[in-house]
């Protein structure tokens, strides 16, 4: 409790103010909301339990739920446009509770409450005068979700892998050839993969499975050679294998934990949900790390920046991840000639996503954070409750690099189900609604690629074909 600067007494005082403000407004609260004394007694019970254990016991959680129900009822019932004083004390109370209670179950209750009142919350966020105190709660929750809390030694896991990428990308051609795999298993493919019908020279990819050198069964590898190929490690960089495996295993572990949370949340929201992702993700061997080295973009001759010397999505075009969960490391920038790590010289370079309002926005993953993206299969099996986000990677503009040739490095890990997993919506969901979520003109529509009853393998095949067609030059209308 000491490191956040708030104490249980601060929460007691906030609850007193909350009760007093609610009484002053003569709000109509539901039966059983309780009195100011009830709020205090409940908080005393929660604080006492939290002082002995991070995770609250069921009885204390019930008390916390009652406090949150009270706050939710106040937020929803006040409703008037001049109710900022009420909102302020509600969010102040939540912020202080959020800082003090560190267990996952308390965190989930806060997030649930925020979802229940999200319309109010969205309106508040658009008001400058309320931003400061609402932001405190948002950053409190974000802080609790950082990998510091759940991925020990995160930076020690991903930095060595990213640092080795420059050496890997510049191995002699003969060594790189040995890493090539006809099934795209494990290789540094520079110009070997294709974008539409053109070889992709923008980046090099080294694929590995962190969970097993020979994942799945012999039959799996024969039937789905693209999904679970054997690893090929470069003999020139012996330390790459243990570092990649340690990083990928940690990413898989975090995603498996997240999948359990997805099951929990979905069980509450959609009664017909039956994807059972927790055990599926935990047991899967379809786990593909991709160490990416984005070569410095070549400046287009005679093209000024305004004319697009580096295209909007020059390093990786706009796309959705097709599978379930993609864990992401922060990125790193290196001088391609020397391998020295350099700060990102171009504020617009790196990962961009389409926000829910349809705009492209940059995303900077903090150096101590792991990010996780939702893939399209997860969107389908959750009935659209979770939405895949279109994203791309923008190259460094040569005019920003001071003459240096700057490359970008990152290492996503794609954590998916077995290819035979059925990708189907929960019963009773509407196909139109599932497909409409997160629709963007920047990526081929999901509805053109996913048919009910398709397996994950079928869906990926259809997606690869559609993206191939999508990236071919479009015929110019006559
Ligand atoms: Fe992606």
TrEMBL record:
Q: Which Gene3D superfamilies match?
A: B-lactam Antibiotic, Isopenicillin N Synthase, Chain
Q: Which InterPro entries match?
A: IPNS-like_sf (IPR027443)
**Name this protein carries in UniProt:** Uncharacterized protein
Q: Which organism is it from?
A: Polarella glacialis
Query: What domain of life does the UniProt record list for this protein's source?
Result: Eukaryota
């Amino acid at each position: 409790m000491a490191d956040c600067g708030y104490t249980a007494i601060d929460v007691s005082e906030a609850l007193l103010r909350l009760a007093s403000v609610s009484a002053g407004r003569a709000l109509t609260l539901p039966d059983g909301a309780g009195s100011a004394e009830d709020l205090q007694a409940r908080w005393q019970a929660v604080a006492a339990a939290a002082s002995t254990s991070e995770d609250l016991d069921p009885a204390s959680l019930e008390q916390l739920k009652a406090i949150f129900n009270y706050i939710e009822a106040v937020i929803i019932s006040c409703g008037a446009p001049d109710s900022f004083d009420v909102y302020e004390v509600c969010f102040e109370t939540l912020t202080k509770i959020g800082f003090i209670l560190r267990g996952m179950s308390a965190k989930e209750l806060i997030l649930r409450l925020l979802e229940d009142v999200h319309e109010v919350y969205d309106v508040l966020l658009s008001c400058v005068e309320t931003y400061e105190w609402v932001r405190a709660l948002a950053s409190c929750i974000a802080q609790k979700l950082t990998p510091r809390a759940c991925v020990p030694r995160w930076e020690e896991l991903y930095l060595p892998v990213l640092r080795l990428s420059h050496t890997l990308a510049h191995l002699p051609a003969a060594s790189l050839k040995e890493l090539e795999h006809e099934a795209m298993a494990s290789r540094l493919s520079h110009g070997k993969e294709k974008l539409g019908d053109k070889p992709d020279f923008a980046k090099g990819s080294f694929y590995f499975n962190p969970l097993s050198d020979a994942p799945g069964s012999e039959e799996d590898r024969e039937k789905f050679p693209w999904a679970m190929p054997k690893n090929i490690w470069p003999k020139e960089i012996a330390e790459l294998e243990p570092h990649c495996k340690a990083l990928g295993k940690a990413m898989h572990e975090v995603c498996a934990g997240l999948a359990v949370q997805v099951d929990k949340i979905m069980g509450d929201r959609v009664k017909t949900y039956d994807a059972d992702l927790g055990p599926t993700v935990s047991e899967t061997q379809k786990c593909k790390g991709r160490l990416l080295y984005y070569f410095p973009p070549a400046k287009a001759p005679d093209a000024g920046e305004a004319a697009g010397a580096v295209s909007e999505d020059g390093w990786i075009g706009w796309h959705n991840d097709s599978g379930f969960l993609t864990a992401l490391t922060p990125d790193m920038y290196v001088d391609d000639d020397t391998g020295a790590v350099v700060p990102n010289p171009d504020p617009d370079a790196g990962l961009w996503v389409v926000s829910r309002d349809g705009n492209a926005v940059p995303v900077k993953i903090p150096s101590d954070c792991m990010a996780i993206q939702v893939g399209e299969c997860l969107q389908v099996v959750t009935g659209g409750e979770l939405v895949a986000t279109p994203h791309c990677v923008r190259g460094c503009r040569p005019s920003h690099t001071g003459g240096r040739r700057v490359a970008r490095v990152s290492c996503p890990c794609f954590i998916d189900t077995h290819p035979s997993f059925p990708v189907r919506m929960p019963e009773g969901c509407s196909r139109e609604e599932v497909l409409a979520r997160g629709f963007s003109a920047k990526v081929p529509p999901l509805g053109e690629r996913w048919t009910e009853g398709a397996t994950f393998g079928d869906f990926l095949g259809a997606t690869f074909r559609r993206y191939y067609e999508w990236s071919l030059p479009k015929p110019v209308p006559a």
